[in-house]
Design brief:
alpha+beta, 6-stranded antiparallel β-sheet
């Protein structure tokens, strides 16, 4: 039915309540918000999942007074999480459905706005970095060639050490520039098991730390294969895991450190201005010192590093690879807990894959 199609395509959470203020229906966005299915919540009181006295009062008054209530930028506790929302309470004249509750999460809208702003800044930075990299590579080739010619002309063997240093440093800078440019070929997309990738990364980090670092696997085995380039994703996740490992090593004994690698499915998620029905969510969480405040807005820019010996290319390269897969990286950090959250599409954009669900009474 057209009504069901429209409800399921809405980004607003639509919740239908009966005369006892128990759940009767959730659209897809409401299921995502409450992290519950419509069938599972049917008959449960709204107070079991949404905690906010003002909302409960509005629902009761709407039921008795037949009056609509609208609240702006109101904090709601949903499943133990505090969210800032706009909500509307609408009384209905219907034997089964008495109240329609509409919830718009402002946190989600703010995240999308922040993502768009961050994407624009990073795109400008990427263009500048690529232009700079090309400008550096041109004279490097001349310097290396001149050093090789000079080496052939020198008769004193001891002087060859100096030309060799020039050649080696020119090669080192060339490799650094190539890393700054990132992958130059498009990813070779095939169906891959995300947990095979994560296990490979775990093995490499375990080998590098000789097993001293505690790595916790928290996988959702139901995640299907994803369309991706296996080798590129291994490189991206390895860069993120190494970043976590190095942050831990800076502040504590490596044996006291812990990295959690978590996989989940997230529903109705917007990234790159497209709403996806299902995405694969990977979190890499460490108990290191956290990212300094002055670096939080620029960690994905090339040549930005919190370590004196760091090149500042690991995170930008990881972001470039994830972007090539139409994905998204977000970071939240505070002392003792830094989480890099990676989202990769499992399905087509939502507006290309809406399916009929169930009719709404």
């Amino acid at each position: 039915m057209i009504e069901s199609y429209l409800l399921e395509s809405m980004s607003t959470a639509i919740i239908a309540l009966d005369k006892t203020l128990c759940f009767q229906y959730l659209n897809s966005s409401a299921e995502t918000l409450l992290e519950q299915s419509s069938s599972r919540t049917r008959g449960m009181p709204v107070t079991s999942l949404i905690h906010q006295q003002e909302l409960h009062n509005d629902l009761a008054r709407a039921l008795t007074q037949k009056q609509r209530f609208i609240r702006r930028e109101t904090p709601l506790e949903i499943n133990g999480k505090i969210m800032t929302v706009d909500y509307s309470v609408i009384p209905l004249e219907n034997p089964e459905t008495r109240i329609l509750l509409e919830i718009n999460t402002l946190d989600r809208l703010r995240r999308i706005t922040r993502e768009e702003s961050q994407h624009n800044k990073q795109e400008v930075s990427r263009i500048l970095a690529r232009g700079l990299a090309h400008e550096i590579k041109n004279p490097l080739g001349g310097i290396r060639g001149a050093a090789q010619l000079l080496a052939r002309m020198l008769k004193e063997p001891s002087l060859l050490d100096y030309t060799e240093v020039i050649i080696q440093e020119a090669d080192r800078l060339r490799d650094l520039v190539d890393r700054m440019l990132g992958p130059l070929t498009p990813p070779k997309i095939a169906a891959v098991n995300i947990h095979e990738i994560l296990e490979r990364v775990t093995q490499l980090i375990t080998a590098e730390t000789e097993g001293a670092l505690h790595i916790v696997r928290d996988y959702d085995p139901s995640i299907p294969d994803i369309p991706a380039d296996k080798e590129l994703l291994i490189q991206a996740f390895l860069n993120l895991a190494r970043n976590a490992m190095q942050a831990i090593a800076q502040s504590m004994a490596i044996s006291d450190g812990q990295i959690i690698i978590r996989s989940r499915v997230t529903r109705q998620f917007t990234m790159n201005s497209e709403r996806r029905r299902l995405v694969c969510h990977i979190a890499i969480i460490d108990n290191g010192p956290g990212i300094p405040d002055y670096l939080k807005e620029s960690i994905f820019y090339p040549m930005i590093s919190g370590r004196p010996e760091g090149t500042g290319l690991g995170l930008p390269m990881a972001q470039s690879i994830i972007s090539q897969h139409q994905g998204l990286i977000e970071c939240e950090s505070q002392p003792g807990r830094t989480s890099f959250d990676i989202y990769l599409p499992l399905t087509q954009p939502y507006n290309q894959a809406i399916t009929k669900k169930r009719s709404f009474s």
